[in-house]
Design brief:
By secondary structure, this protein is α/β, with parallel strands linked by helices. Helix content is 24%, strand content 26%. The protein has four domains: 91 residues, Dockerin domain (Type 1 dockerin domain), CATH 1.10.1330.10; 265 residues, Glycosidases (TIM Barrel, Alpha-Beta Barrel), CATH 3.20.20.80; 92 residues, Golgi alpha-mannosidase II (Immunoglobulin-like), CATH 2.60.40; 141 residues, Galactose-binding domain-like (Jelly Rolls, Sandwich). It is built from 15 helices and 33 strands. Strand 13 and strand 14 form a beta hairpin. Helix 1 runs antiparallel to helix 13, helix 5 runs parallel beside helix 6 and helix 7 packs parallel to helix 9. It is globular and about 95 Å long. The N terminus is likely disordered.
């Protein structure tokens, strides 16, 4: 009791000081709001998530000699009590010339399945037993959700121009012999058939290339197999040959994916350069995200081509956070997962390899292992295999990964988010899963708005990983109506699981804006493709790229009684929506603001429903003049960026506005008059503070206290009330 009284006294004193002096107060930092909607989902694969995974090479090649380590890996990464991964990318090794000894890593010298002697080729199905041992155990651990993709880094050495499976003598040139495209396709298809028929492996997809349009792969490399393919004809040829070879074996249902370019931007160029037939043969676009930035463009390309899209490989030695210690690598990974999934709308996210380092005093196959890593700094992988101790050493990066993989599950519908958050909706089980990271050294306030759902539960199970916690159940977080307000711990990743959720609210009387007259200010560089009409075209992927003092408006042709307004900010520029205004007018000249965006919204549709319908013929979205007056927008002026406006209502009739003497108009509420005495004063702030810090007190007029009209009384309302007192 004493603690809250001390806090109350301090806040009251600050309120009095604010009104008694001319000092300009800085409002308390507003919580970041993330609006979630069952109607605002990933576009790829109809929003259905396929899962999380890892490539098995090279770590499975290294640990698979040991049944003990192989099983521990299967349980740790694919098992119910581990990461619960469900996608394994199995490497069909080409196999280097047996006389070569230049690959020095203990894990990356992948065996091939053929023996070549004097022009005669035979298959050795005992090859690659280590990787296969791990695969079979992972399949059992993952259960029915398991997905297997077969992929290749290089053809067998005897098909290569250099006679070496690590690349051409010129790393930027094709290494597959011109007359061996069909031979290579036959090799891949034959391995797939054998795994299916002899070892019972269900194969979802196959990929003939890995980062093909690079100059990474050179003959005599100490690192790994690799093969350059030029974009265009070379990549098209191997795709079509693989399609024929798979069909010849009755495996037409196996998806052919392409082309695992190392860069997002290169992936766009590579797909566009494919022949028409090759594009038809490709069932899914696989991309790595080591480079490039055009995530939304690749997403749009996949959608226009009617293809699914995977993020099929990435990792790195990055670190993030503020004095984050062991959490730094995990926070970096969280940033990558969130950016890739939300930006690409990817239906799967796959880490390169969960184990990249090995500890073994004796080494392996005459080579020396890499040894233990400093887990407080950036490192590849999520764990280290200690062969001497027969154990898997886990890191905070592993546990951060699990905050996503354990709870966002295959079959869930991915919800569009922005910033530091990912979310998914499990319609069948009535559950929403939210994962957010905090890279700051202090708490980060968040509000998750689920008002677009017709029903939500009363609390959220909360699981957290931080420097002192690993998948810790930290108790239930209570919802206030349809909103979950929380404070993320410093340098942490937190998962919220909300049960009792039901789908979307049915909105009626949507106004068809097609053909309506749209006008507005010019767009950036007068670009017609981002003009004001893009805000009313029914497509959230397009946007109005307006500049300072900008607006876009629609003439409805007649007066409507507007019941609800919807808006979607421009993706990647959501901060520019703060302080944006929805305004209405009868004549297109005199405007009334009916709604102002008060916090940074997430990407996706947001809705505002006034208490009574608003009559107007013209509606516009506009921004204030001058420099932004909020901390999130660092631009020099407000820029009018908006992706979509939706309007709901009916044509106006005299009948809808007729009033009687017995029903006079409701008096206008005085915002901030918390105690309902007809004026706004320090006493109002004191009453609101008492309510916020203890449930024993109440406010006289909750509606007047709700300064930002979001249906919740919190610190944001108190900050806005303080600003009102300063005026």
């Amino acid at each position: 009791m004493k603690n809250w009284k001390r806090r109350l006294s301090a806040v009251i004193a600050s309120c009095i000081a604010l009104t008694a002096t001319g000092i300009t107060a800085v409002p308390a930092h507003a919580a970041r709001t993330v609006a979630l909607s069952p109607d605002d989902t990933y576009a790829i694969n109809n929003g259905v998530f396929e899962g999380w995974g890892t490539s098995l090479c090279w770590w499975a090649n290294r640990v698979g000699y040991s049944d003990s380590l192989a099983q521990k890996c299967a349980d740790t990464f694919f098992g119910e009590n581990g990461l619960r991964l469900n996608i394994a990318r199995f490497n069909i090794g080409g196999g280097d010339n047996p006389t070569h000894n230049h690959i020095t890593r203990t894990d990356s010298n992948m065996p091939g399945y053929t023996k070549y002697q004097n022009g005669t080729v035979t298959y050795d199905w005992s090859a690659d037993a280590n990787q296969r041992n791990v695969l079979q155990r992972c399949i059992k651990a993952a259960g029915d959700d398991m997905i297997v993709e077969m992929f290749s880094n290089s053809p067998p050495y005897w098909m290569c121009k250099s006679g070496c499976s690590t690349g051409n003598n010129n790393p930027g040139a094709n290494n597959l012999k011109d007359d061996c495209y069909d031979d290579f396709a036959e090799y891949l298809a034959e391995v797939c058939k054998h795994y299916k028929e002899e070892w019972g492996v269900t194969i979802q997809s196959v990929e003939a290339m890995n980062e093909p349009y690079t100059n990474f792969w050179g003959a005599g490399s100490a690192k790994q197999e690799g093969c350059h393919f030029d974009i265009g004809n070379s990549e098209s040829t191997i795709i079509l040959e693989l399609q024929k070879s798979m069909a010849k074996r009755g495996m037409e249902d196996v998806i052919i994916s392409a082309s695992d370019e190392t860069s997002i931007d290169t992936q766009i160029d590579a797909y566009n350069a494919l022949s028409g037939d090759a594009k038809k043969a490709v069932g899914r676009i696989d991309t790595h995200t080591y480079g490039g930035s055009k995530r939304s463009q690749l997403k749009d390309l996949a959608l226009s081509a009617g293809k699914n899209l995977w993020m099929s490989e990435v990792d790195g030695n990055g670190a993030s956070g503020q004095n984050a210690g062991a959490m730094a690598p995990g926070l970096w990974l969280s940033e990558r997962i969130t950016a890739d999934c939300n930006g690409l709308n990817a239906s799967a996210w796959i880490l390169w390899q969960v184990i990249d380092k090995h500890v073994c005093a004796a080494g392996y196959m005459g080579k020396k292992d890499s040894g233990m890593v400093d887990m407080t700094k950036g490192f590849w992988g999520t764990a280290v295999a200690d062969h001497d101790q027969d154990t898997i050493v886990l890191s905070k990066k592993y546990y951060c990964f699990g905050q996503y993989t354990r709870y966002i599950r295959p079959g869930m519908i991915m919800l569009n988010c922005s910033g530091n958050t990912m979310a998914a909706y499990d319609k069948e089980n009535g559950q929403v899963v939210i994962v957010s990271y905090n890279t700051s050294a202090g708490n980060s306030d968040m509000v998750y708005d689920l008002s677009a759902f017709s029903q939500v539960g009363t609390e959220a199970k909360t699981i957290r990983t931080s420097n002192s916690e690993e998948w810790k159940d930290v108790g239930a977080s209570k919802l206030n109506g349809s909103q979950l307000a929380v404070s993320l711990a410093p340098n942490s990743v937190t998962t919220f699981i909300i049960d009792g959720v039901k789908g979307s609210i049915e909105r009626e009387n949507k106004i068809d804006l097609k053909g309506k007259q749209v006008t507005g200010t010019n767009s950036w560089h007068d670009d017609e493709s981002t003009g004001p009409e893009k805000a009313f075209d029914g497509n959230k992927a397009t946007f109005f790229d307006g500049v300072g003092d900008g607006y876009t408006q629609v003439d409805l042709g007649e007066t409507y009684d507007l019941e609800e307004f919807g808006y979607c900010p421009r993706s990647g520029y959501e901060y520019r929506a703060i302080d944006g205004m929805i305004q209405v007018s009868d004549d297109g000249q005199n405007w009334e603001t009916v709604y102002t965006v008060t916090g940074e919204p997430s990407y996706g549709m947001h809705y505002y429903k006034p208490e009574t319908p608003v009559s107007a013929r013209y509606v516009r979205y506009a921004v204030p003049s001058g420099a932004p007056k909020n901390s999130a927008n660092k631009d020099s002026v407000y820029c009018c960026n908006i992706a979509e406006i939706e309007l709901y209502g009916k044509p106006h009739t005299a009948e809808t506005t007729t009033t009687t003497e017995t029903e006079p108009p409701k008096p206008q509420k005085l915002k901030g008059d918390v105690d309902a005495n007809g004026k706004v004063a320090v006493a109002d702030a004191v009453m609101l503070v008492k309510y916020l810090v203890t449930s024993e007190d109440k406010v006289t007029d909750p509606e007047a206290a709700d300064m930002n009209e979001d249906g919740i009384l919190n610190g944001t309302d108190l900050s806005l009330l303080k600003c009102e007192l300063l005026k």
